[in-house]
Amino acid sequence: MIWKKKLRHKPCVCYVDNNATRDVSIAGKARTQPGLALVTELLQLEDEVGLNSWYARVPSASNIADGPSRKDTSSLTVKPVPKDLALLVMKKLLKKIETCG
Description:
Layout: H1 4-7, E1 11-16, H2 19-27, H3 33-49, E2 52-57, H4 66-69, H5 83-98
Parallel strand pairs: 1-2
């Protein structure tokens, strides 16, 4: 959601370190209500942006997001998104999901 203007109509490889997340993202469906709400948001975002996504699993040790998720930004070569912006986007997404049931 944060980078959708830069990703519009472009191919995008999304690396995740969880097989279930990868499988749900590829299938576009989930067995649980929270999972279904999240994948619905993902599909709507892909459609809105015209994103051509490819989902792949990467082990935690190779995941470039693993360090930053643990507050270690020493390996980053770009400036991270401000925490306030990330929180705002996450709150907006969670509010949408809560209204889904």
